[in-house]
Amino acid sequence: MTGGTGGLGDMDELYEAIILDHYRSPRNTAAVEEPDIDLEVNNPFCGDEFHIQLKVEDDAVSQVGITGRGCAISQASASLLAELVKGKSASEVESAVDAVRRLLKGEEITDAEADILGDIEALGGVRKFPVRIKCALLSWVGLGDALRDHLAK
Amino acid sequence: MSDSTSTAGSRAFDIDAIRADFPILKRKINGQDLVYLDNAASSQKPSQVIKSLVDYYEQTNSNVHRGVHTLSIEATDAYELARTKVAKFINASRPEEVIWTRNTSESLNLVAATWAEANVGEGDNIVITAMEHHSNIVPWQQLAFKKGAELRYLSHNDDGVIDLAGAGSVIDSRTKLVSATHMSNVLGTINPIAELAALAHEVGAVILVDAAQSVPHMPVDVQALDADFLCFSAHKMLGPTGIGVLWGRYELLDAMPPYMFGGDMILEVTYEDANWNDLPYKFEAGTPNIADAIATGAAVDYLTELGMDNVWKHEQELTAYAMEQFLSMGSVKVLGPQDPALRGGVISFIHDTIHPHDLGTALDQQGIAIRTGHHCAMPLVRSFDVVAAARASFYIYNTKSEVDALVNGISETEGYFSR
Fold it and tell me: Residue B366: its chain A contacts at CB < 8 A?
């Protein structure tokens, strides 16, 4: 057994400082009053679950609240998502969700998309840990579907 | 194979010699020695079992029960010999009581679709424990929906020990089936099967035992348990994937309708009708999993030579050692019985700050394989107010120094996440 964190190999690529920060201090965890979108997402493979609430005003996300139980990756990802979507229009959110999907799969994202994602790029480290991609995507997948449904109303 | 029916074994329990039989234990994972602690999910295979598969395909491969040529005769003999070995391993009264299936799940589904379909009616009830694997919950839920029957649960205390005193009021005159895990794949609890069998038989019900976690690890005697059905999978006991066993009492199996229809399971077919072959073939439609059945026989030989008493003793020692280490850590809570004597070598635990998946990834980086998640027992894991747990489970090739590696690995991970 190697001493220190040396024995932990590539862990730093998965758990970048920004990820650990969002995991320890998740943003936007307060409940939203009378949300327009209120959904529970869960990963039946691991049991992780999140409760996502959004208020949409003038076609833009005005409030967001996410709470749940999950690993560091799924919690940090949910917190990063909450920060990103605030103030964004539905179509901007959909584009961001699409960019995150490609980022996690190791596909190219444009410089413009990278600017929008900001800190979220840190989630890209999950590429080396394919089994954890589901953790990083959990809250994003649910959000894309919910927004699509809300727009269709 | 020894002719003795003793569970004492003919080979010394030499851990170094045992480890040398498992080629995969030489692998490096992320640059570290593999420490394989996910045996409750699937065990590793000794070269004796792997060689049995290769020998079959290189020397004997042919279809069974069909030809008069040499290969078919040899394949049939080897296939049936494996059945006989399994029958003896669990002390079945005759080999025809051993039905080959794909796995424990298929064995359970077979009983649900045939025996239970014919014997459970509206207003009847099926009794299971609250610590079952999904495969011993969902078939009964579905059957209960379909028949208008009731699915009842036996409760357990905070330590995961069945409330046997309360079982007498759950099992009643309308109970047709009691189905219980012999050893919980989450809590490690060893359930009082013989006592539950007595309660079931008192009211004319039958008892089914999910022995997926017990047959690989301890001596199991279907007659001493007074069981009616018992199911397990080969891949958790050194054997190949894709093959399992349903054992049932001859009279019950004989009276049951077939599960699948096709070749091998018929006695006579006319254009108008068909009638069924004798046991066990009535339940083995189509070309069976010949190679894996034979390799299961090799796995049974391996365990028999070691002696199931010795296998159990080794795992009890490891479990007691691991429980002691875990409890002294302070940061982990072990689910299930705290007394090692009441449990098997399956230790599910919850860390007070690190989520099981983060722990699983960090341990994998150190070459240590554990299971994380709900362990196919969602209602049970959620009853502890968590969504997931980590689980280490032992087998014949695990050592105390591997338990130490696990404990060190958890400490390293704590250090990493508190930096």
Answer: 1, 7-9
Asked if the C-beta of B358 comes within 8 angstroms of chain A's C-beta atoms, the answer is yes
**Cα B215 to Cα B232: distance, rounded to the nearest angstrom:** 7
Cβ contacts of B408 on chain A, cutoff 8 Å: 1
**Nearest-CA distance B387 → chain A (Å):** 5
In the CATH scheme, what is the code of domain B51-304? 3.40.640.10
Q: Which CATH architecture group holds B15-45+307-417?
A: Alpha-Beta Complex (3.90)
Per-residue pLDDT tens, chain B, 419 aa: give them.
Answer: 444 456 788 899 999 999 999 999 999 999 999 999 999 999 999 999 999 999 999 999 999 988 889 999 999 999 999 999 999 999 999 999 999 999 999 999 999 999 999 999 999 999 999 999 999 999 999 999 999 999 999 999 999 999 999 999 999 999 999 999 999 999 999 999 999 999 999 999 999 999 999 999 999 999 999 999 999 999 999 999 999 999 999 999 999 999 999 888 989 899 898 999 999 999 999 999 999 999 999 999 999 999 999 999 999 999 999 999 998 999 999 999 999 999 999 999 999 999 999 999 999 999 999 999 888 888 898 888 888 899 999 999 999 999 999 999 999 999 999 87
Count residue pairs from A and B with Cβ separation < 8 A.
Answer: 74
Residues forming a β-bridge with B275: B268
Domain residue spans in chain B? 15-45+307-417, 51-304
CB A51 within 8 A of CB A110: no
Chain A partners within 8 Å of B416 (Cβ): 5, 8, 11, 15
Chain Cα centroid distance, residue B241: 12
Does B29 contact chain A (CB < 8 Å)? no
CA nearest to B111, candidates B276, B255, B267, B278 = B255
* A9–chain B Cβ distance below 8 A for any pair: yes
Query: Check: CATH 2.40.30.200 for A6-152?
Result: no
Q: Give domain limits for chain A.
A: 6-152
Of B358, B362, B388, the CB nearest to A47: B388
The Cα of A110 is separated from the nearest Cα of chain B by a number of Å equal to 30
For residue B281, the cross-strand partners are none
- As a whole number of angstroms, the distance between CA A14 and CA A74 comes to 12
**Residue B287, phi then psi, degrees to nearest 5:** -65, 120
For residue A26, give how far its alpha carbon lies from the nearest alpha carbon of chain B (Å): 15
In whole angstroms, how far apart are CA B196 and each of B53, B115, B337, B340?
A: 38, 19, 19, 22
Instruction: For chain B, say whether A70 makes contact (Cβ under 8 Å).
Output: yes
